[in-house]
Amino acid sequence: MNASARSRFAPRAVEVSYRTDGAIVLRSPIPLDGCERHICAYLERWAGEAPRRTFLAQRDHTGEWRHLPYAEAWTRARAIAQALLDRGLGHDRPLAILTATSIEHALMTFGAMIAGVPVAPISPAYSASAGGRRRLAEVAAILKPAMICAQSATALGDVRVMPELAGVPWVTVCASRGG
Fold it and tell me: What average pLDDT does the segment 98-121 reach?
């Protein structure tokens, strides 16, 4: 890397803390400037500055583009945040997302972040095979999600009855078709 490229980056500096629970925490001693404290602040800002501008887009099942403008995304993410809080999720009661990337996946993630709810996206591949379901069981045992979000419930019947997920409420975008 040449000198001019190196000068664009902050110096290498890391503070390491070892917690009694075995976790290792890495922090940069270099303060960030010129950016928001939280990613959701950008969504709120652009909802005010460019409310009709497309924030996210994806193709629907017919191949047509679905567009989600900033203002609508901000409104829906805040509603999701309130719904998560109303259902008792919080800093110690996380949300697991067991679905591929989608507009709904993003909205649930932003809603959880707004509410201060930890969110754990889990690869949908874990629900596709016996080996993957064993890994999903391990993840669920550690995470202990208070709620699971999935795009569709149709292909997840055997996952929903896993002992590690028994009794966990699910929210799905569409119960009748895969996604």
Answer: 95
